Amino acid sequence: MATGRTHRPATRSRGIPEATVARLPLYLRALTALSERSVPTVSSEELAAAAGVNSAKLRKDFSYLGSYGTRGVGYDVEYLVYQISRELGLTQDWPVVIVGIGNLGAALANYGGFASRGFRVAALIDADPAMAGKPVAGIPVQHTDELESIIQDNGVSIGVIATPAGAAQQVCDRLVAAGVTSILNFAPTVLSVPDGVDVRKVDLSIELQILAFHEQRKAGEEATATAESPAVPTATRTESATDQGPDGDVPAVMPA
Amino acid sequence: MATGRTHRPATRSRGIPEATVARLPLYLRALTALSERSVPTVSSEELAAAAGVNSAKLRKDFSYLGSYGTRGVGYDVEYLVYQISRELGLTQDWPVVIVGIGNLGAALANYGGFASRGFRVAALIDADPAMAGKPVAGIPVQHTDELESIIQDNGVSIGVIATPAGAAQQVCDRLVAAGVTSILNFAPTVLSVPDGVDVRKVDLSIELQILAFHEQRKAGEEATATAESPAVPTATRTESATDQGPDGDVPAVMPA
DNA sequence: CGTTGTGAACGGATTCACAGCC
DNA sequence: GGCTGTGAATCCGTTCACAACG
Question: What is the recorded function of this protein according to its Swiss-Prot or TrEMBL entry (chains A, B) (predicted)?
Fold first, then answer.
């Protein structure tokens, strides 16, 4: 089973660039904040500052969605919130399951950012029978045995894996077999999935290692460049305007 | 190879591209697994498969580090583990503090991937006085009041923020003022930091939103049906735009 | 006016394909 | 023969700069 579909070209012909998609949630968050303050319109410059990107990039990003701004004025906040939400698919309800209810799984279950944006935690699943029935974030934990039926009964297409590394692939296989087609993986493992299934990974220790690399470089530099400016740099509290590297992502779709 | 006198491009980032740095931890993890199985050598093809990248990219990445392979044979696993560890700065000890010991902070404190890679949790810090003294992952939680002294006494340069969004900037400011120069931010907020401070962000809800985008596209494709829904509803408010919206910041790379 | 929207220039990252070496 | 290392080609994303337009 699960064999060769032709490898999908990274970006669909008429699609929005991946880099842009990855920033839409950022814009959405900034816009939501403005919306809550009842700000009616915003310029690309202001919004870009709030989102921590530069304005040319933001305008280019929005241009892929359509012409939603007004020259000389800016963008209508409410309208843009709607357009981006729709583009991201957040106007519909996405039931998700979280598998692995340790500290991390519990943190995810309690995370407000999920529930507040179209994501609904349909179930919490754990392999430990002792957990079964215990409520976490108000939702009773269910045993792994029920994974398949939970997914089918709730029409779940997005799964979150927060298990130990050793269990991740097995859980992944079961999720996929049961119909899940998008996976957010927190376990430090490379998951193999059939074509057509998206995987995004979040690896806590990888991020730290990247920081360590830069930290080490700073330390080394300081030794060679003793004649720099005095003391601390200015109090320039610029927003961190530097782009994260090629984001932490490895888009998806594994080889089979 | 450019041993020539052609002078290098402006930004003196002596060598390794960001994209490569971001993948080194991935390679390291795959290599460590091989090492534990006592595999002596590995080809670029095999290692690439284990790390989930393609082999040309892997070879190009390694070429930035030096010529550590043997043509016709492959790479020596142990040697490569050492070289990458050194490059990433993992041969030294990095004391880190985690601020905000909720579920997420506890998950981080318990996360084995930290300790096993040169990172040492020097302290857990929380604002709740009731937490003080309580051990989490074997380490007693300390109160925020002691943040500055902890950082200075331990020579901490890397801080992890796992607080609610509202507290993140304030915590960040204190960390930076006390000497921290690299921050891993889990709070859904854009952090402002002075030049010279690196910030990397991990935003749980952003990843889910990106998945939702792709998921939606799959669904639409399969139906190929009706295009976008037309009319823009009234004052569309995606969901219960409750408290903290999700938000993301764009981390930093190098000092200016 | 001021600000958007976008072609064009640029630069970095990925991929190709093969020379070089074991 | 097999595999690494790498210039060259290509792809993708960012930035520039300005025309279009309310």
Answer: Modulates transcription in response to changes in cellular NADH/NAD(+) redox state.
